[in-house]
Design brief:
The protein folds into two domains: about 130 residues, Enolase-like, N-terminal domain (Enolase-like, domain 1, 2-Layer Sandwich), CATH 3.30.390.10; about 220 residues, TIM Barrel (Alpha-Beta Barrel). The chain has 13 helices and 13 strands. The structure holds 2-succinylbenzoate (OSB) and magnesium ion.
Length: about 375
């Protein structure tokens, strides 16, 4: 596979419903679509799904744009690789910046699968033809607002719901949802908002009898010792998200007993190549895994669905239908029926980019390679805080 051109498209989409986590609230998202072209004119798409602000990870839209334009595209454009799992080696010296790397790596996988004429899911080693999807619901103003949101998604067919929690928004909303929906598969995600202090630990322990599938990322990413101490006191599994950026992180977490379930995000791991390796490592260690999301547009969502078809993804994934997030997506919408998403059997990524709509929602572009004039990356100042 010889990559001859790389393009970036910065795209803004409004969210159907504002989303609040323990760290921020969002009404629209700016993601960067990566378009790679090979010497046969075939195209592969990937998505850099970084939040605008460095509150989930260190990455932002601005830093991702900088790294992609100055390091990643220059490393892959002109390269001839045997298979997409060699692509991360092309920029192997770049530390961190996994969201940007993930978009480029995923575009290379989509391009490769298109060239081979196989669906992306099979190319990655997927074995399922459907994926059980869950929804991730943000912090709401009131418990009644939250119950209405949960009800809406249960009515839409979802059987698994994840609630964002934070100190002060935990026991009450979780108990209310549990008593209204006794049978629902329920889990919570704190995005690292709790600390090693008696009140915080007591609030988390009070969730242990609410029948949760897991408590995701209670503590700061590097605070594996507190996570291990909590796990030792709970029967509910602790799930790690932000704590695991590499397979080495997972091995350390396992050795410490810091958790028992792994959220694998393509973005956080740095691509599909890395996500498949994390999946393999989790399986070996006996950690059930599921695929987390970053509110991806259709391009990144299709890759998440393909990844979720691997056999180690035994828990429901955050791969809800496009309609949960966007009124109109950059691809045909991904749909769910009864909370289940079908894995595409079409060659390549499985969705097509809507170029007409892309032209309407695109804020900025960059191109490198085959008969393009390199465009300046531009100043980054106007990318943040939007
Ligand atoms: O921690 O899983 C998270 C969204 C933004 C930042 C962090 C997280 C999330 C989600 C969204 O939970 C999951 C989805 O894409 O539906
Ligand atoms: Mg999370």
């Amino acid at each position: 596979m010889k990559i001859v051109q790389g393009r970036l498209h910065l795209v803004r989409l409004p969210l159907v419903h504002s989303f609040e986590t323990s760290s921020h609230r969002k009404a629209h998202l700016d993601h960067i679509l990566v378009e790679l072209t090979d010497d046969r004119g075939r195209v592969g798409w990937g998505e850099i799904a970084s939040p605008s602000d460095p509150y989930y990870a260190a990455d932002t839209v601005g830093t991702s744009w900088l790294i992609a334009t100055e390091y990643l595209l220059p490393a892959v454009v002109g390269a001839d690789v045997e298979s997409p799992d060699r692509v991360p080696d092309l920029f192997g010296k770049v530390r961190g910046n996994r969201f940007a790397a993930a978009g480029v790596d995923a575009a290379a996988w989509a391009l490769w699968a298109t060239g081979q004429g196989v669906p992306l899911g099979s190319a990655l080693g997927g074995t399922r033809d459907t994926v059980v999807a869950g929804v991730s619901l943000g912090i709401e103003r009131t418990v009644d607002d939250l119950l209405a949101q949960v009800g809406r998604h249960v009515d839409a067919g979802y059987g698994r719901v994840k609630l964002k929690i934070a100190p002060g928004w935990d026991t009450e909303p979780v108990r209310a949802v549990r008593s209204t929906f006794p049978e629902l598969m329920l889990q919570v995600d704190a995005n690292g908002a709790y600390r090693d202090d008696p009140e915080h630990l007591a609030a988390l322990e009070a969730l242990d009898d609410t029948g949760l599938l897991m408590i995701e990322q209670p503590f700061a990413p590097r605070d594996l010792l507190t996570s291990a101490a909590l796990q030792a006191r709970l029967t509910t599994p602790v799930c790690l998200d932000e704590s695991v950026e590499t397979v080495d992180d997972l091995r350390v977490a396992d050795a410490l007993g810091a958790g028992r379930v792994l959220n694998i995000k393509v973005s956080r791991m740095g691509g599909l190549t890395a996500a498949v390796r994390a999946h393999d490592a989790a399986r070996e260690l006996g950690w059930p895994a599921w695929c987390g999301g970053m509110h991806e547009f259709g391009v990144g969502r299709a890759a998440n669905v393909a990844l979720s078809s691997l056999p180690g993804f035994t828990l429901p994934s955050d791969v809800s239908a496009s309609a949960k997030y966007y009124a109109r997506d950059v691809t045909e919408p991904i749909t769910a029926e009864g909370g289940v998403v079908r894995v595409s059997t079409r060659p390549g990524l499985g969705v097509t980019v809507d170029h007409e709509f892309l032209a309407q929602v695109r804020q900025r572009t960059f191109a490198l390679g085959a008969d393009t004039e390199p465009e300046p990356a531009g100043l980054l100042t106007n990318l943040s805080h939007r």
